[in-house]
Amino acid sequence: LVQGITVGGVNTPAAATPRLTLNSGTAQASNFLVGSDGNTGIMTITGSSTELNVSGATSIIGDTAGSNGTVKIQGGAKVTTGALTLGNNASTTGSLNVSGTGSSLTSSGVVIVGRRAHSFMNLTDGATVTTDTGAANETSPSLIIGNRPGLPIVVVDNAALNVNQSLRIGDSTSSATGNGRLIIQNEGVVTVQNELVVGIGNG
Length: 203
Hints:
The protein is mainly β. It is 0% helix and 49% strand.
């Protein structure tokens, strides 16, 4: 068990782009942080025999201002995680790309795409993402696309997105408007077990 995985954090040399690739076996970690403290980080999990199991509460792709994080799950690799946030603060970018038959991400907590920034989640070519398998009740959001200003985009292209409870597009607070887009194409499938809410509060 690795305490935590950080790719592109506080000790990154200037102008460097740290990359971490997992291409075989099973890895376990308490969480992961990809792209933080003004740095860029890229993590790739690839291959049908590769798994990453994350046991902690929240992992983040694109954390603090000026940071860019990208996570790629491909070639049949499988990732399980707790809650997951893309684009955690203003002026960040978080990207999650899940591609290929058998490739999957399964979260036991809520997934937020664009908490405060532009972010992207792309599902392609037979991949599957399942959100919030541990939701406490049917009104709990399992997937939020756009929680604050920014334009987060989720694309489901010949792939499957399973939302265990509710899906919110354009969530917001009393002081900030959330925007979001969900694009379904090429026989992509989105399944929402309970509510689909488009625009909530000022969203």
